[in-house]
Amino acid sequence: MSFYHKPPTHVDVLIVGGGPAGSYAASVLALEGIDVALLESSKFPRYHIGESLLPSVRNYLRFIGAEEKIKKHGFTYKPGGAIRFNQHKKEAYTDFVAIGQENSSWNVVRSEFDQILLDHAKSCGASVFEETKVTSISFSKEDPNRPVSASWRHCPEIKTENARNTSGTITFKHLIDASGRAGIMSTRYLNNRQFNRSLKNVAVWGYWKNVSSYGLGTPRTGAPYFEALMDESGWAWFIPINNGSTSIGLVRNQQMFNEEGKNFIYDPSEITFKAQAVPNPSNSTSTNRYISALSKLAPGIVKLITENGYMVEGSVKSASDYSYSAPNYAGPGFRIAGDAGAFIDPFFSSGVHIAFTSAMSAAVSVSASIRGHCSEEEAADWHTKRFSISYTRFQIVVLSAYKQLRSQKLDVLSDVDEDNFDRAFAFIRPVIQGSMDMGTRLYESELQNSMDFCVKLFNDTDPHEHDIIASNLNLNNGSSGKGPGLVGIGKELLDLTAPIMDKSVLERAIKVAGGDTGNTNIESDPTAAQEPNTTTATGNNGNGESEEATLARNVLEKINARRVLHSEYTLSGLETEVIDGFGVSLERGNLGLARAVIG
């Protein structure tokens, strides 16, 4: 018989939730020797959606010593990602490994991934208590905004005599709420969750077996594939994962989805899959709608399913009202991290990345407060701004993609916080605005221009094309570049770590590359996915430019757009980006905040 070990009556830092944010924060703090207890309501492993990871997670995993555990587990190798914004154009492919094999990522079974992270938190020294649900938070009588204790209840999946009706209270100095979408602090006590109207979508997904793979037999094998739906209501995903199944889902505008549902009639004769491929013995309406929409609206994914693919019976799930944020993610004695505070959208797979960055921010700011690096008020404010900056950068990138997917101008001004935008995009506002002085107020036109800038991140390029541009600009063999106006900045043109380039500099480089009379024939990409095409997703074909100039534009504008998120991808970005006069100290044993030296 297994016995339940109760949580302690007091701990320095209590973490609610054992998902990626909670496990990561627990690992970071425990490695600093800080007394940490984590309470998780479920028994791991448990199911969770969100199988595709960004390359940035490797840097964060490495910091806590978990990267090798993930590498050795056998998750599906992810070399990049493909997105078809328009059914009449070629998909755009982002090659993660173009800048090194260590920049690859994984598609994962989240129950397995999350289990590894939770176990790792234990190995780092955190006290972890599963099947332990936090039922309420109590606040200080002297400071009603400061949480000081939590009531918990043991909720085992399998009832045992000794575990029945076990409950208790734990006091703490600091609380990190990583309770997922439930968001106990935001939804129950702060009441400050705000939903994004422009991303008010419904996601429906299921799991399939025996399907094909995007880029099968090429270096792109394992890459997720995304495509715009035929009716412009959203997009679909195709993500191979390591248990032999493939996650296939649709994200659709909620209003369009609901209207369609009023008159929905399932007609099996319209379904392009074989009858045995879509088992639905209970005749579930949600499953029928999923099958019907997939068949009619996602032709690229239907081809990847092939005639041998079949859906796992009973695997269809759905979610809505999942795009949200909050004006504050911290206060006296508490921090909020991961989905407990904010979530953008499944597109671009930013969920685990933001879970890690916000968890790191929570841990850093708590440690800074404990160690006296700053006041608790300063630490809490810093965390809110750090979380908001990361969220806003990814939010604009995701919105830029939706602008393409829906082929329309998005009304997003009400969803983007002006102060957060200013902090997150201050470094590109001069590039967006040019010489025009728009002042400090955020305008709809500036948001639209920012999205137009960021969407170039999805330009379709490959390493061979990057090499061609380097050659055309004479950037190989240690050269600093050629061409009028490019002296001294040539190497930076292809460097993701360089500052964002002014448009005039890029235009000069594009002209130099386009005017090169050398051999710039581009052979067909052997890794291209299954359907031939002659244009790029966001290229400028048909505008009078030479092929060489268009190629240079795609490559250089993509690199420039990727710089928007590059600081998010590295831990050094946390150290160098100063917020309210503080940078991050990642020194082991002295984790916290350091006052920036000015001058």
Automatic annotation (TrEMBL):
Domain FAD-binding: 11-138
Keyword annotations: FAD, Flavoprotein, Oxidoreductase
Low complexity compositional bias, start-end: 533-544
InterPro entries per record: FAD-bd, FAD/NAD-bd_sf, Flavin-dep_Halogenase_NPB
Keyword Cell membrane part of the UniProt annotation: no
Highest taxon above the source species: Eukaryota
Gene Ontology process terms (BP): secondary metabolite biosynthetic process
Coiled coil: none
Catalytic activity, as annotated: melleolide F + FADH2 + chloride + O2 = 6'-chloromelleolide F + FAD + 2 H2O + H(+)
An example molecular function term from Gene Ontology annotations: monooxygenase activity
Entry-linked PANTHER family: FAD-BINDING DOMAIN-CONTAINING PROTEIN (PTHR43747:SF5), FAD-BINDING PROTEIN (PTHR43747)
Protein name stated in the entry: FAD/NAD(P)-binding domain-containing protein
Organism of provenance: Dendrothele bispora (strain CBS 962.96)
